[in-house]
Each structure stands twice: as structure tokens, then as C-alpha cells.
Design a protein that fits this description.
Length: 231
């Protein structure tokens, strides 16, 4: 079975994708979510073969999340399913490590084909802009593969860790980077869920972060998830 996770901020689109994929007997939709935080969490929990996601409206878009998903689950391939035909966005998605790019309005009927192609090690790009996209990728230096394996180079933090973050706030951010929810964090740290939320709110304010997705990315990029294991 090909294990798939679906991430889309629109419930009606998640339901449509689920119905298309579920009709294929060799596919198993192992999980679904609405944002980048869910994508990172489900990459660890489900270890899917493929994550299909449209996060254009999320605080961190699909291209930015692809390298982090690959770092969490190296064997997972990513297909970007976008609502827009956008050369620049498609180019960034592909250069960040995505294995597929489809435009919803024209390619939903090709979704099952894209999953099979990517699962078998190929790339699937089915958009009228494909020629222009490859022209950009070959002619501009701004696009580069940002995914690095552990031995290739040191990870660069997206921003410094504020010195005024206390140990509890750092632990909570590390747990979020590992995909834990507030209830699970509270149980691990022997705190009330409301207390965890208060610490998290304080940590986000100090670090200038605006969503759990950004907290997860912050924790991963700064190595908090490697240094702070659940107790």
C-alpha cells in the first residue's frame, strides 16, 4: 500500500482529495491536516510515502516546509498541489525538494497518476507553465536545493534563540518541534494544559513567532528537537 498524508487548509479540498485517492485500491490515506504544523507532526507519526499539500495561505508555505519534512522523514516524498499557476512558486517548490507540482484547477484528475509516478521514484509536473518553470530553474541562481542531510553541512538557524527564553519555554518549543500537542506536553512536563499554553504564548512573543508551525520550524532549525528529548 502507498501511504499518503493530505494537508490542505480548505476542508472541502481535503475531502475531495481524500475521495479521489480512496478510490484507488493501492492507496491508503493515513492522515490529514490543515497546516504546516500538522504536516510536520504527521510526517513523524505516519511515516507516509507521500505528503500531498497545499499551504499557500499558511504562515509558512509549502516550499519552506519541504526540507523540514524531509529532515523529519527522509523517505517521504512531497507533492505540492496548488490552487494557482505561479511560475515562481512552482520553481521554489521543486528546488526545495518537492517531487511533484500540480495545479488544482487543471490537474485533479491527474492526482492518482502523480502519486504512482512519485512513489516509483519519478517526478510529476503537470502544469501549463512547466517550460517556463524549467527555464527559471536553469537560468537563475536564486533557486537552490535547501535540503541538507545531517552530514552535509551545519544547519543555519532561521533566527537566533532569544536569551530571555526560560528552560520551560525551550522545552515546550522542543516538544512542538517533535509534533506533540499541548495535552501531551502537559503530561510530559507535569503541567496543566492551560499553563503550557501560557508558556507557549510567552515564548512565541519573545521569539517573534505567530503560529505553532513557526514554533515547530524554529525548534527544528535551532536544534532544540535534537537536544531536548521527552522525559
Amino acid at each position: 500500500m502507498i501511504k499518503i498524508v493530505v494537508i490542505d487548509d480548505r476542508k472541502q479540498d481535503r475531502d475531495l482529495i481524500f475521495s479521489i485517492l480512496s478510490a484507488q485500491k493501492e492507496f491508503e490515506v493515513s492522515g490529514s491536516g490543515k497546516d504546516g504544523y500538522d504536516a510536520l507532526k504527521l510526517a513523524v507519526e505516519c511515516r507516509p510515502h507521500i505528503i500531498i499539500m497545499d499551504l499557500r495561505s499558511d504562515s509558512m508555505g509549502g516550499p519552506e516546509l519541504v526540507p523540514l519534512i524531509k529532515r523529519k522523514s527522509p523517505a517521504t516524498a512531497v507533492i505540492i498541489l496548488s490552487g494557482y499557476e505561479d511560475d515562481e512558486y512552482a520553481g521554489k517548490a521543486l528546488s526545495s525538494g518537492a517531487s511533484g507540482y500540480l495545479v488544482k484547477k487543471t490537474d485533479m484528475n491527474k492526482l492518482a497518476d502523480s502519486v504512482r509516478t512519485v512513489y516509483n521514484g519519478g517526478y510529476f509536473i503537470n502544469t501549463p507553465a512547466v517550460v517556463r518553470i524549467f527555464g527559471r530553474l536553469s537560468g537563475e541562481t536564486e533557486y537552490k536545493n535547501v535540503y541538507r542531510t545531517a552530514g552535509q553541512s551545519k544547519k543555519q538557524p532561521i533566527q537566533p534563540v532569544p536569551t530571555n527564553l526560560n528552560q520551560t519555554e525551550l522545552k515546550i518549543m522542543a516538544f512542538i518541534g517533535k509534533g506533540y500537542n499541548s495535552k501531551e506536553i502537559a503530561a510530559s512536563l507535569r503541567l496543566k494544559p492551560g499553563t503550557v499554553r501560557n508558556y507557549l504564548s510567552s515564548a512565541m512573543h519573545k521569539a517573534g513567532l505567530k503560529s505553532r508551525t513557526q514554533v515547530a520550524i524554529f525548534a527544528i532549525e535551532n536544534g532544540l528537537t535534537e537536544n531536548r528529548k521527552p522525559q
